[in-house]
Amino acid sequence: MAFEDVTVAKPTPETYKALEADLCNHSGKVPLHERFRALFTLKALADNEAVDIVGRAFADESALLKHELAYVLGQMKNPHAHAVLKQVLATKEEDPMVRHEAAEALGAIGHLDSIVILEEYLKDDSEVVVQTCELAIEKIKYDHRKEKEALPESAYSSIDPAPPTTDEEATEQLRAIYLNQKLPLFERYRAMFALRNQCTTESVLALADGFDDPSALFRHEIAYVFGQMQHPAAVPSLVKVLGKLDEANMVRHEAAEALGSIATPEVYPVLEHFKNDHERVVRESCVVALDMFAYENSGELQYADGLSK
Amino acid sequence: MNNVANCLQHLKPQRDDQMTHNTMADNHDDEQHNVQFEGTSSGASLTFPIQCSALRKNGHVVIKGRPCKIVDMSTSKTGKHGHAKVHLVAIDIFTGKKLEDLSPSTHNMDVPNIKREEFTLLNIDDDFLNLMTADGGNKDDVKLPDGELGEKITADFDDGKELLITIIAAMGEEAAISYKEAPKSG
């Protein structure tokens, strides 16, 4: 990303130890949201040592934490994470949300060698895992195309599961591609990220129309991009998704965190309410989301503040 | 300009001094919120929105309603959603006062349209500069600057030198910021 502060000096071994103690909750007293902040501090470091620490945190029980670990390993784009990601993906007892994130992370790192690994899961029992692997394979193939497309500069530093559509700019046209269930998921995702980059009320409303899609993976990605866009027009649809008790956990979880990121005053009582949800992953997401809310509304510069403590 | 710049129009009317980031719903509007300044010859807007992440050091930005030059910028590390906060330190281009702001990188900030123009100094009249525009008209509404710059302009003008004064204009305000001796003709 163009504007990320890269002037992070290599921390001391003691700092790594402290970050690991926070992330892995060695004391048993570290609140979940602090563990997340430690995780994103490690994401910014992105070296092998940071990858190893994140890998060791998979011993935890929280699916929310573990899915975030896998996500961060992908975003670090460090192939040193391949071994642990493959292992997580192969663990069938693991929550599908965590396995999905491991598959997506292999796509984010983007090595051609990962394609054969991902192909093994195209008939997995979990539809979320199957669809993620399809997308990740397409993404890796795209990354290795001989003829590169010129992609517009994005305001977001994330490595996305698909690049934005480049040959269409009209919101209505992008919306039609995005909602067309007959098209390949990769193409629909590309339209989704193009709509994200537009970031207008119109594009938010077009994206919200996707919440009726039959794919939970697709619906969860909408909630994620809403968290990126921080556009208040997304709040009503996210509140609705979070409040839908028969919606998939990974979608409700993503909606909660997106609300924390948008951080307008009306989301606070909603997150407070669902902090008591019957689903653990939703409860925990609300805790993390309330911390994001606090950060967005604070005068603090750093969310990932593990180096300044 | 990138479409992204339409994102999250970030109206910042009266910001408090604690640099708190405020994502009130009414900060977000897809309509351009450029302030139109009636009476400028060009009819150009006083400011234009730009995504915070696209601001650069030594560029300009509006902070607390004042046109400023950015002297320092730092960007936070990113969290889950891949957006950062940007801390801006800037100097009011008219008063020299230091101002700070903290904004999400995805939000829009206003950039002042700044115009620099040179005028020939005709006279100094009761602390106002009598200037001549390029098309020969008169411009008498800019003050002689305070302090050393004003004293030097007065001294050189009294010596009979022909002076060109640079006037900076932004957000409906104008000031003389520098001057030089006109090149000798012939």
UniProtKB/TrEMBL annotation, chain A:
Query: What does the UniProt keyword field contain?
Result: Cytoplasm, Hypusine biosynthesis, Iron, Metal-binding, Monooxygenase, Nucleus, Oxidoreductase, Repeat
What terms describe the molecular function in GO for this protein?
deoxyhypusine monooxygenase activity; metal ion binding
Q: Which cofactor does it need?
A: Fe(2+)
First-level EC class: oxidoreductase
- Pfam families from the entry? HEAT_2
GO CC annotations? cytoplasm; nucleus
Q: Which residues bind Fe cation 1?
A: H67, E68, H100, E101
Q: Where located?
A: Cytoplasm; Nucleus
Q: In which pathway does it act?
A: Protein modification; eIF5A hypusination
Keyword RNA-binding assigned? no
Which residues are involved in binding Fe cation 2? H220, E221, H253, E254
Kindly give the InterPro entries that the UniProt entry links to this protein: ARM-like (IPR011989), ARM-type_fold (IPR016024), Deoxyhypusine_hydroxylase (IPR027517), PBS_lyase_HEAT (IPR004155)
EC number assigned by the record: 1.14.99.29
Q: Which reaction does it catalyse?
A: [eIF5A protein]-deoxyhypusine + AH2 + O2 = [eIF5A protein]-hypusine + A + H2O
Q: Which SUPFAM superfamilies match?
A: ARM repeat
Tell me the PANTHER family matching this sequence: DEOXYHYPUSINE HYDROXYLASE, PBS LYASE HEAT-LIKE PROTEIN
Role played: Catalyzes the hydroxylation of the N(6)-(4-aminobutyl)-L-lysine intermediate to form hypusine, an essential post-translational modification only found in mature eIF-5A factor.
The UniProt entry, under HAMAP family, shows: Deoxyhypusine_hydroxylase
Q: What is this protein called?
A: Deoxyhypusine hydroxylase
UniProtKB/TrEMBL annotation, chain B:
Q: Which residues form the Translation initiation factor 5A C-terminal domain?
A: 113-180
Query: In the UniProt record, what gene is named as encoding this protein?
Result: TIF51_1
| Entry annotated with the keyword Acyltransferase | no
The family line of this record is: Belongs to the eIF-5A family.
Where does it reside? Answer: Cytoplasm
Q: Which GO terms describe its biological process?
A: positive regulation of translational elongation; positive regulation of translational termination; translational frameshifting
* Keyword terms: Cytoplasm, Elongation factor, Hypusine, Initiation factor, Protein biosynthesis, RNA-binding
Species the sequence originates in: Podila minutissima
Q: Which GO terms describe its cellular component?
A: cytoplasm
NCBIfam families (UniProt xref): eIF_5A
Q: Which molecular function term from Gene Ontology is one that the record holds?
A: translation elongation factor activity
Q: What is this protein called?
A: Eukaryotic translation initiation factor 5A
Q: Name one Pfam family in it.
A: eIF-5a
Using the UniProt record, give the first listed, main subcellular location. cytoplasm
